[in-house]
Structure prediction request, 672 residues.
Amino acid sequence: NQLTCASGAHLQATYKLNMGLKLGLGAIRDAVGKVPKVGKNLIGVVPGVGLEVIGRVPGIGRVSRLLQNKKVVKVVRGKAVKDSLEVIIKSTVPIDGQKPGTSGLRKKTKVFMEENYLANFVQSTFTALIAEGTRVQGGTLAISGDGRYFNPTAIQIIIKIAVAHGVKRIWIGTGGLLSTPAVSAVIREREGGFKAFGAFILTASHNPGGIHEDFGIKYNCNNGGPAPEKLTDAIYNNTTTITEIKSAAGFPEIDIHQTGVTLVGKVVVEVFDCTEDHVKLLFGKCFDQKKLAALIARPDFSMKLDAMNGVQGPYAKKVFLEKLGASEDCLMNCDPKEDFGGPNTPSHGHADPNLKNARELCDLMGIKPDGSIDKSKATTPSFGAAWDGDADRNMILGSKFFCTPSDSLAVIVYYAQKAIPYFKGGVKGAARSMPTSCALDLVAKKLNIPYFEVPTGWKFFGNLMDSAAVYKKTNYTPFVCGEESFGTGSDHVREKDGMWAVLAWLSILAYRNPDSSKPLVGIDTVVQEFWAEFGRNYYVRYDYEGVDKSKAEGMMKRMADGDALKAVAASDLLGYEVEKADVFKYRDPVDNSISANQGIRYIFTDGSRIVFRLSGTGVVGATIRLYLEKYEDAKGDLNGFAPDVVATLAKVALKISNLAAMTGRKEPTVIT
Prediction:
């Protein structure tokens, strides 16, 4: 039909029931909303203007430029709007054990599925946000996760609670999927950036998925980073006193698999391509797409990339197949699954990129579970990488070569300015978690850049990144940081970023291989040359998982009190001399907050270190992590096998801690 606007402009219109009115052919902005004698339930898309309401949709009113170029998939009108938005107050009682760890709240999936378990935590979060002054009312919230079991159901529960608290826009990645770094990118970049006040991320990270395995939830703030301790403490305190849950129980179920917009009154729920914001950021600001594509196109270069059936799959396809022109056979396990493949896969459904769990990839790369070389492999790919369930962690491999996360961080900082466009002006600051090896320190001193040793947890890096922008203090950006637990990243987002780390290493290889006619310089050569300049920090981590919590805490208290070291004879130190023994405490140089009890350190006169720490990422019992580091200078033996080199140090650690006697554990669960 042809409609005549108040201004005299003509619009060609096609109406489709419940899906809106498509308008076109030179419509002008002033005409929008001024079409006389038109029915009330018409919605239109005007080129250059976006989706507008012609007249007024009952219960919705005028929906405007927030929806520019969006596809409307559903509109709820009339009485249904009132029913959908009605706030129901449900009585509840506190549930024990809802204190978030270093990366949110994690429990067995069936625990989260219990009545009110998830809802209590989400309600407690909203209560804390409103109390601290976050503009929840009328605000925008992102909700997505890594695709593990219970993810779709959890999203619907959170939507209803969010709407009840006045949230007016909700963003969801297709399929309910967003990697953890992508969530940060969405908050910081989508629609120009910083439109969302925060996000709920549904993930237990590298923990197994499935109905009998683990689930988790964390809240990220408006800077894109994890909630600070002040907020997580407030959330936990609320979980101990909660009496009611507010929910828009009648809000319609959102089809999280169909991209587009659902309008319910003035509430807008948008499902969008989960990869778009993160990938746009990586190639728009961080990396040189042409140089990466040229490296991948070399006939003597090959790679294998394992998403471990986690959320990274869609991103890997977008980055490597669509953007960089790689062949599909370079990708492994890139279809996200709710159980990450389950117990019958090589990873046993444990999407944790380490030598034990990423066995399918490691076997192809010629690396045994203990990190030694599999000499039976005649040929292997040039480059290998794996990511965990929510795609924030990464493992870097060369042909028959395992690059430790500590070395990976140090090498990236060393090459950043030369190899990665984002750092063309130089790295202005760097940091590592306390247990991470001191290799980074050596590089930072040589490059004369500030560096920091912080507690485990990405939120501590975030404060340093935001030092100038938020706190008006020293500017440390561009910034690079990392953890020994396979996490690396920069200030482009406020989370560790597995894809970023892989592209950073490929950028280093592209820099080292400018001439395709010359032999390929691989990961092993890059790292070995690094050792030849800086020396080698031999490094091994022992994980003791599922330890009785009271026994683990008793062992840690004995060391913290100093009783453990007093009970050890000098001869039991096997030639090592203790220079310093302490409980690590961190004063944040940005906001002056203090984080105490962050691990126990034994530092020896030769620079070697023993660190004990209780991990905050497990869901059953306690996980004791023992970190062993021995430094060998550049003139020493740089080609040793790390577990053998630190074996004596391990004996000292077990003697000091009396771990076997105090916990009943004879062997570690995992060695990396």
Observations:
- The first helix runs from residue 79 to 85.
- The first strand starts at residue 2 and ends at 4.
- Residues 225 and 247 are 26 Å apart (CA to CA).
- The chain has a mean pLDDT of 90.
